[in-house]
DNA sequence: TATTAGCACTCTGTGTTAATGAGTGCTAAC
DNA sequence: GTTAGCACTCATTAACACAGAGTGCTAATA
């Protein structure tokens, strides 16, 4: 168990290092006016904190830097919520107050504002369409052989695919197909769509219209969706301003990581709904060893729908980011839920 | 007018500098076996070439480097088409041969393959929707107050917007609206849609359905499109491997530039249809002073539809990139045109 | 017993100097 | 017109000294 003084010292080390990015020395700590001990005493305490694994030296005679364990302790025990400035509150309200219609726009703007306010990088995982339910099918013919298949979901998302029509497929066949699909599949979630299509409609379709196998295959194709939401970035280049990214190799590694969708998605921990913090190696990804990720999820209606992540250096302003994320999460949830419930 | 020997020397300087990124010295040039002169002679010629502005020294006693004027001359007079390797041809065919349905996927893949083959960055400007023509309108109600408006264009593109319905708007009103829109606006290009909507349909709508001003405003909104195609990137991080990007500030400036849509679009010169090369400061953008951009446009059907750009260091392999771009341009045009004409 | 002042020691960062090497320009010879 | 030879320039690198920041330890102090 840490003594009170040790807690104080750890807190100063983390706070100072977060703002200055420089190792913190005993003299620097002793200067804080709420710290009464002399540098020598602090050095002794620091030696103990180091032995306990909370802080590290970058070389024999340098000041101390928080270790991952140190950050973890800080985050778990020393973090205190802070309130936001008026400017910040204003910015948030500006996204949500306008009667905004396009969900995509709200999300895009949220990502930008978050990254502006934090000067870190924001990743926003959009609502996962696979939970949405089919509201309406539509097939619009483009030519003799091609058409566009459209699915509108209950909260206004539109999916579309180009499909190939069987030879000699008449407009009436299209109409029949659309009717069959709408009769049987409205209300089905996109996740189940593929199997329900297979079980309930293909046979019926074969009976009523001139269906070729290629057409069935096209329809299968229509019912295939990405099983993760769309990814939005904010402030991708903010990271380059952080001193830990003076190393070009790190920059490249991170940029390449962010180009790969699957790797980006693996940064999120979607198990749970609260705010989560992963520090450095806790992310299980070499590229992220010097970075921390803070995630939160927002909901639309009752479902947990999407996630927000902020990526910054391990030396991140955890307090601030956690507070901002919390506000943003609830703001987004409220804004998007209103939009959907708007008269259901 | 340059002598034959001067041409040879300039060519070697550009070619060698392109591959090595190191200033080229007289000895190095004399080693090429098709160069017969001695280093001293070459030095004299180089002094002349420098006086003419085709090459430069980085410092008093360094080898020579092509100037912008030198590159420009090289590109205008010394460039010779090269043929592609089997591997490359194979890669190209792999995109186009599969019966691909989604235009977006073809474009995305093209961008990736181009950047893989060149190890530069590719920007692909997708087809500009504003030239497409309306094939079908559709309005799908989501709730009492909201609906999704959908426009399908003649080549299968789908645009959609969420709109707000006037109070007490009945399903039959929606049907009437859709009918009026389809009767009057099918075949109109998206570019003209806004004005035609204004002139020809709003009055009719006011007569036949319970139209609120907010509804009219929503429809106006529906008819507003981005007037440039969507932007696709390939190999955004390739640039980081170029030695000229060892400078972090340049990296940041470039990355920030690529985040801004308008700046990216200004890189294209869409006046004309051929292959265009802009070298360094010819791009009129500080960030691009050390970079060259090669652009080409592809067409779908008869219209010039989209553009491809490859961004690399000024010290770029112009021959190779021009050849690749030429193949890609015609491949893309053919693939996308087939897709559209497919039975018109 | 806990704290603190003092001091030797360690490591980083910076500025200086010297040596090396690649390349040029010029002159004189071919 | 071409080329060999030579003096000169500049960038790069290594070696070295020195200042500064910080530590750990010891001995004195409250």
TrEMBL record, chains A, B:
NCBIfam families, per database record: hrcA (TIGR00331)
Family in the record: Belongs to the HrcA family.
Functional summary from the UniProt entry: Negative regulator of class I heat shock genes (grpE-dnaK-dnaJ and groELS operons). Prevents heat-shock induction of these operons.
Winged helix-turn-helix transcription repressor HrcA DNA-binding domain segment(s): 1-72
Pfam families per record: HrcA (PF01628), WHD_HrcA (PF03444)
PANTHER family per UniProt: HEAT-INDUCIBLE TRANSCRIPTION REPRESSOR HRCA
Keyword vocabulary terms for this entry: Repressor, Stress response, Transcription, Transcription regulation
Name the UniProt record assigns to this protein: Heat-inducible transcription repressor HrcA
SUPFAM superfamilies membership: GAF domain-like, Winged helix' DNA-binding domain
UniProt xrefs under InterPro entries: GAF-like_dom_sf, HrcA, HrcA_C, WH-like_DNA-bd_sf, WH_DNA-bd_sf, WHTH_HrcA_DNA-bd, WHTH_transcript_rep_HrcA_IDD
Location of the Heat-inducible transcription repressor HrcA C-terminal domain: 104-322
């Amino acid at each position: 168990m840490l003594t009170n003084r040790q807690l104080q010292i750890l807190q100063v080390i983390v706070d100072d290092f977060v703002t200055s990015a420089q190792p913190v020395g005993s003299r620097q700590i002793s200067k804080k006016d709420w710290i009464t001990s002399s540098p020598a005493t602090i050095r002794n305490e620091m030696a103990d904190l180091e032995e306990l694994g909370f802080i590290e030296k970058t070389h024999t005679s340098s000041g101390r830097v928080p270790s991952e364990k140190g950050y973890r302790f800080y985050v778990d025990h020393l973090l205190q919520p802070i309130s936001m400035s008026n400017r910040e509150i204003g910015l948030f309200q500006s996204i949500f107050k306008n009667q905004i219609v396009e969900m995509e726009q709200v999300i895009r703007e949220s990502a930008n504002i978050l990254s502006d306010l934090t000067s870190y990088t924001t990743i926003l995982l959009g609502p996962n369409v696979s939970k949405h339910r089919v509201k309406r099918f539509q097939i619009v013919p483009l030519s003799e052989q091609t058409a566009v298949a459209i699915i509108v979901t209950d909260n206004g998302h539109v999916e579309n695919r180009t499909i190939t029509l069987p030879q000699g497929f008449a407009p009436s066949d299209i109409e029949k197909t659309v009717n069959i699909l709408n009769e049987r599949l409205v209300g089905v979630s996109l996740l189940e769509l593929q199997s329900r299509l297979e079980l309930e409609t293909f046979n019926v379709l074969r009976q009523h219209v001139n269906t070729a196998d290629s057409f069935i295959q096209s329809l299968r194709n229509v019912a295939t969706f990405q099983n993760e939401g769309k990814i939005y970035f904010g402030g991708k280049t903010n990271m380059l301003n952080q001193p830990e990214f003076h190393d070009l190799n790190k920059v490249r590694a991170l940029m390449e990581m962010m180009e790969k969708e699957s790797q980006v998605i693996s940064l999120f921990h979607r198990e749970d709904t609260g705010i989560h913090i992963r520090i450095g190696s806790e992310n299980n990804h070499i590229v992220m060893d010097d970075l921390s990720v803070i995630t939160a999820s927002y909901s639309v209606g009752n479902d947990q729908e999407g996630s927000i992540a902020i990526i910054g250096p391990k030396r991140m302003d955890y307090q601030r980011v956690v507070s901002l994320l919390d506000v943003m999460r609830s703001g987004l949830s409220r804004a998007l839920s209103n939009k959907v419930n708007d008269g259901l």
